[in-house]
Amino acid sequence: MELIKKLGTKFIGGKWRRIGVFSCPFCLQKVERTLSDGEKCISCGCHKNVKHGDFGTKLYNVWCDMKQRCYNSKHKRYKDYGGRGITICPEWANDYTKFRDWALSHGYKENLQINRIENDGNYEPSNCNWVTRTENINNRRNTISKELIKQIEFSYNTEEYTRKDLAIKYNVSITTIRRILSKLIGGL
């Protein structure tokens, strides 16, 4: 677990022990532990008391990875998620079963990945769907072909589509559409 703050000492089990506040990497709860115990533990105990029975499944790992990207500043992808202010709605962040229920009722399959429709938006029911790996790669902020840019510009100039319609049609974020139409990406 990650040490957040040292608190001082407490008399525990007949000995004075140094105490700290730690953040659990699984549930993100803050727990008070002795420094030696907190540094050895991998979680607050939540992963041992999993009530949903999904610990270790692909969907549970999607949920854990999503939380790590958004809230663990030491995660290799934090700068692209939490570092940009992307968060997870409290309903999902605090309750795996609510995330699981949403996922299963919105097309989750093991070969799909979670996708934020609005690339600068948060992980929440109105901004997420399930897509293939290829679709997810194509929706990254830095991946867009000149041909796709031309198609988007052409479609927009027909005046038949709103920016949101184009984002859905071409499976890119509204921010990407805005940047293309304002020529921020067109010069690629």
Detailed description of the structure:
The chain contains eight helices and five strands, in the order E-E-E-H-H-H-H-E-E-H-H-H-H. It has 188 residues and is of the alpha+beta class. It folds into three domains: 2-40; 58-138, no CATH class; 146-181. The protein has a three-stranded antiparallel β-sheet. Strand 2 and strand 3 (30-34) form a beta hairpin. The longest helix is centred in the middle third of the chain and has 14 residues, at 58-71.
Unreliable spans: none
Give the termini distance in whole angstroms: 43 Å
Strand percentage lies at 15-25%
Q: Helix-strand pattern, N to C? A: EEEHHHHEEHHHH
Which strand order does the major sheet show?
1-2-3
Form type: elongated
Domain count: the total is 3
Number of DSSP E strands = 5
Question: How many helical stretches?
Answer: 8
Please state the structural category.
Answer: alpha+beta
Estimate percent helicity: 25-40%
| Main sheet properties | 3 strands, antiparallel
Sequence-ordered SSE layout with sheet pairings:
Elements: E1 2-12, E2 15-23, E3 30-34, H1 35-40, H2 58-71, H3 90-93, H4 96-105, E4 113-116, E5 128-131, H5 133-138, H6 146-157, H7 163-170, H8 174-181
Antiparallel strand pairs: 1-2, 2-3, 4-5
Helix pairs in contact: 7-8
Structure in a nutshell:
With 188 residues, this protein is α+β, with helices and mostly antiparallel strands. The chain has helices at 35-40, 58-71, 90-93, 96-105, 133-138, 146-157, 163-170, 174-181, and strands at 2-12, 15-23, 30-34, 113-116, 128-131. It has eight helices and five strands; from the N terminus they run E-E-E-H-H-H-H-E-E-H-H-H-H.
